[in-house]
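#struct-help
A.M.: can someone run this one for me? Single chain, 53 residues.
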Amino acid sequence: MATAKQKFENILSEASADSNIVGFFLGGSRGKGMENEFSDLEGKDKRAINLKL
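D.P.: on it. Structure tokens below:
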């Protein structure tokens, strides 16, 4: 089973490869550098959208 760090690295790798994602925010205890073995992953991405007006 993948560790939380491995899962995050996989998510970050996928987000980095997607040109529509312009930002990724890691929240919660991991985002503050205070994670422990019980911490989960809380993240949000920001996507660029192409609006034709």
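A.M.: thanks! The longest strand covers residues 21-26.
D.P.: also worth noting: The helical segments are 4-17, 28-31.
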